[in-house]
Amino acid sequence: MSSSYDIVLRRLRRVFDQFGEGTDPVLRPSDRSDYQVNGIMAVAKSRGENPRVLAERVVAELDLGDLASVEIAGPGFLNLTLTTSFLDTQLRANLSDERLGVATTTGRTAVIDYSAPNVAKEMHVGHLRSTVIGDALARLYRFKGYKVIARNHVGDWGTPFGMLIEHLLDLGEEHAVATLSIGDLNTFYREAREKFESDEAFKERSRQRVVLLQAGDAETNRLWRVLVEQSVAYFSEVYDALGVTLTPADVVGESFYNPMLADVVRDLDAAGLLVESDGALCVFPEGFTTREGDPLPVIVQKRDEGFGYAATDLAAVRDRVSQLGGTDLLYVVGAPQAQHFAMVWAVARAAGWLPENVRIEHISFGSVLGPDRKMFKTRSGETIKLIGLVQDAVDKASLALAERSPDMDPEQRRVLATQIGRAAIKYADLSTDRQRDYVFDLERMVNFEGDTGPYLQYANARVRSIFRKLRGPWNAGDVHFVLAHDAERSLALGLLAFPEAVDAAVTSCQPHRLTGYLFDLAQRFTSFYEACPVLSAEEPLRQERLALCALTARTLTLGLSLLGIDAPEQM
Ligand code: ARG
After folding, report:
1. Most C-beta atoms within 10 A of its C-beta, which of 110, 137, 271, 414?
2. Which whole number is the average pLDDT over 493-507?
3. Is the pLDDT score of 284 beyond 70?
C-alpha cells in the first residue's frame, strides 16, 4: 500500500517529467491547504517562462482524479486539498495494515556502528547518545526492511591493557572481578592509571604485559578476556536498563580486526599509498591538511610497530563491505571524530575498498551538557555513570506516579517507572536535532507535560483508556470516514503523514523527525478529543471517531517502538 503523499507525488512527477527539465516537485504540508507544491518557479526560471502560466499548464495536465482539488496560489505555487473520499480510502487501508502505510526497502544491508564504550572504562554520556541514537536507527532501518547488522565497536585493545592486566593481578583476580562486576570501572581504571604514572616498576611490568598480550601469550590473553567479559557484562546491564537491543553477540571490538591489520598494511603498500614518515607507516589522503597547509597523515602502523585506531577502522570498513555485504555503513559517533572518519574513508576509497555505491555516513552528534552548560561531568571532573542517570530518572518517575496515582499497585508502579524513566532520557536525546548539544535536565525530561517522552506515553495510554471503557473487543468493521469536523480532518491528515515521518527519519538518520511528528500527532489528538466526544457520539459517528482513536494509538505505539520507547497501555 502507498501513502497518500506518495500517490499524490507520483501524479505530480508524471507532469513534471513533461515540463520539469529534471526538477522534482516538492510537496510540503501547509497550513492553507493540505500540501503546497513547490518547484514550478524553478522550472519556469530554467525555461524562461512565466511561472503563473506554467502553473496553469501543470494544473491542466495534472490528473488528480478524485484525490485532491488544486488551486494556483501566489506567483506559482499549487495548493492541494485532499478529498475526503481519498482520506477515507487511505485511513481504511491503514486499519488493516500493520505497517500503517510505511513501504519497505529491499536488498539493503545497514551496518550500524554504535555505542562502542571502552573496556574497563565507565560508559559516559557520549556513549549514551551513541547508544540511544544508534538503537533508534537500528529499529527504524529494520522496520524499513533493511537487514541490520549492529556493530558494537568496543575499545578492547591497545597499550592501556598492559596496565589494566597488571592492576588486575595486583588486586587479585577475584577481587578485581568483584570491583568490575559492580560496575566500578572508573575506580579500577583510575587506580591503574595512577600507579602507571607514579610507579616505575609497575610501568615497566605494564609494558612487558603489552608485549605478552600482542604475542598471544595464553595466560595474558586469558586475563585480558576476563577484563573484556566483565566489562561487556556490565555494558549489557546498562543496555537492559535503557531498553536497548544490543547484546553481547553484537560486540565486535577493535581486537576482532587484529588478524586483518597486516593485510591492510600489505595492500595499502601494494596500492602504492603507504609512506614512511618519522618511522611510522602513513597514508596521506588527498585534501586533508593542517592549518599551515601541511598534508595530514592517517597513521596505519606506529613507529613501535603497533597498529592504531585508524588501522582498525580501515580493516572494519573492508570487513563491513566485503564480508558483511553492507550497502549502508553508518557510524554513530560524536562530532569530534568527524575528521578521523573522513580520512579513514578517503584512504579506504583510494585503496578500492569502498565502492561508489556503498553509502557511508558519520552520524555525528553534539554533547550532553551539565546544568552549567559545560560538558556533563561530576564535580570532581569524572565521567558520570550512565546507569546512575537512568536510575535517577526511574526514581523520579516513581515519585511522579506515586503523586498522580497513589492507589497504584506497587509492582505496577515499579514496572511503569522503569518504562517512563528510560523513555524520558531517550526521548530528550532523540528529540533534539542530533547535531546540537543539549542540557541534561531530569526535571524537564520526566515531566508529563510538554515535548517529553512521558507526555507521549501518557497521550497513548489516554487513547487506549477509551477502548478499556468499551469493556469488550472493538473492531473497525465497515467504518467510513466522513471527517465532518475540522479536528477530525486535522487528526486524519496527521495520521496519514506517518510514512513520511518515518522515511525522513530513516534517510536523514534524524530520529527527531519522528519525535516531532509524534508530538504533533499527540497534539492533534488532544484538540480532536477536546472538540469531539467519542463514546457519547451517535452511530455511525461514534464508530468513525473510535476508528480515529484506534489509528492514533497504533501510530503512537508503533512510532515510539521505532525509537526504542515503551508505550505502556495504562499510566
Ligand atoms: N570506542 C570509541 C570511543 O569511545 C568509539 C568507537 C567508534 N567506532 C569506530 N568504528 N571507531 O570513542
Report:
1. 137
2. 96
3. yes
